[in-house]
Structure of Cupin domain-containing protein:
Amino acid sequence: MKIVHIDELPVEERAPRGRPGMAKRSLIMTGEDSSRPDNFSFRIMHFDDSGRFSPKHRHNFAQYYYVLDGETVFGDATLSAGWLGYMPEGVFYGPQTGGIHSIIVLQHGGPSGQGIIGYDQHSEAFEALKKTGSFEKGIYRPSAGVQAPAEQDSYEAIWEHVHQRQLVYPTPQYSGPVNMDTNAFPWTPVEGAAGVFIRSYGAFTHCRYGACSYRIEPGAAASISGRGMCIVLRGEGVVREEASLEEGVFRKLTTVYVEAGEQVLFSPTQEAEILFLGLPSLDQISELPAIDSDANAAAA
């Protein structure tokens, strides 16, 4: 178990790498080893009205978006507060636009085992590529004389710079993004846990990791297990890891990372709502299967 309070973290203001628009970002947590296929990056982003734009693109990792406030647009879908999006690996989504809004972003290595590059690797590659080309509206274009495609998605160019090989996308397990209005899901009592209610949003991919929310009344306690992030949307109280008896406090936007095999207990002093975003564990992630590069080219 790892506890992080967002109000104790520095806030960074910058344009998203290679994409227009200004944002304030709190980097909450990343995996400790970027070479692992279960690596992740978790942050909260606050966008102003300076023209955020990201073109239609795809990734070789999976990710969640949760809208805290405002509205953001993903292609034909407009997501407002309480909407949760799951973006499977290999699936095209976007373009992304939006005015003033705040979102939770959890990017993570998906079931194909390709992982996700680390934050430092991403930053170093971005700065290196700026010396050999330019980024504009989410597209990287190399300078004249540079041996590279005429244009690429910015993340794809960064990934290939880090790995020094072509990015081959995994075959999508879904036809597109999965967008969920969490406010439309009913609260269901958790059997054997008085005062605890759950909203279940589904399990994703053959790895069967999922997302849900818990509502916990004062004096009750909710036990949460399975690898993932617990984000406190409201309330405060005490959380402890049941095996080690490690304990800490939680409050609004506290994040508690639960590792595979751990079980944590949330005991609120005022009604609490916890968003749980599940992550695939290392033993669930398959070895990278053979990928048809011709099919990738056709899909693009």
Summary: Residues 218 and 270 are 5 Å apart (CA to CA). The first helix runs from residue 119 to 130.
